[in-house]
TrEMBL record:
SUPFAM superfamilies with a match to the protein in the record: Acyl-CoA N-acyltransferases (Nat)
Listed Gene3D superfamilies: 3.40.630.30
Lineage: Bacteria, Bacillati, Actinomycetota, Actinomycetes, Propionibacteriales
Organism annotation: Microlunatus soli
Name recorded for this polypeptide: Predicted acetyltransferase
Domain N-acetyltransferase as annotated: residue spans: 74-156
Superkingdom assignment: Bacteria
Length: 184
């Protein structure tokens, strides 16, 4: 049964396979995550280990980050050793996040889409956001992403407004299911 876990190097191979699936579909997220600034790739085990440590450190307020970034929690949706997707929970909003990024972002690898993983991972992420004191959570999706819109609305998302090609919703976090989370 899939669960949310903290990022871990044990998912290296599966994580890379998921990104390759995204690249095959020309998904921008996959390219952004696969390559680091100096053209080394996450295929290098040490680069991947450093990436995982960076994700884990991002929860701390004092962790250095670009000016417009806020502390956040990264969680991976996995089944056994298989990386299925990721949830990113930003601990607070700034002007940029209020207009499109929101509190929570998620991505599911292409080969397991349309099987309920996005909804299950999102609900588990909402529970985690609630434990962080976020309620409700601002969530956005591209205005043409019908699947994501359905996930958000099925979780109780209330439409706020469109903004620059995105739809913004407020989603209650306190009523989401606790299933699917394993803080390991």
């Amino acid at each position: 049964m899939p669960v949310l876990v903290r990022p871990d190097v044990r998912f290296h191979r599966s994580f890379l396979a998921a990104l390759q699936e995204g690249l095959a579909l020309e998904e921008e997220m996959s390219a952004a995550y696969l390559f680091t600034g100096d053209q080394t790739t996450l295929a290098d085990p040490q680069v991947f280990a450093d990436y995982v440590e960076k994700l884990l450190a991002d929860v701390r307020e004092e962790t250095p980050r670009p000016e417009h970034f806020v502390p956040g929690t990264a969680l991976w949706w996995v089944d056994g050793t298989q990386f299925l997707g990721r949830i990113a929970i930003r601990h607070r909003l700034n002007d940029w996040l209020r207009n499109g990024g929101g509190h929570i972002g998620y991505w599911i690898r292409p080969s397991v889409r349309r099987r309920g993983h996005a909804r299950a991972a999102f609900l588990a992420g909402l529970s985690h956001a609630h434990r962080l004191g976020i309620d409700p959570a601002l969530v956005s999706c591209d205005d043409d992403n019908i699947g994501s819109r359905k996930v958000i609305e099925s979780a109780g998302g209330v439409f706020e407004r469109p903004f620059d090609g995105k739809l913004l919703y407020w989603v209650p976090t306190g009523t989401s299911t606790e299933q699917g989370h394993n803080g390991s």
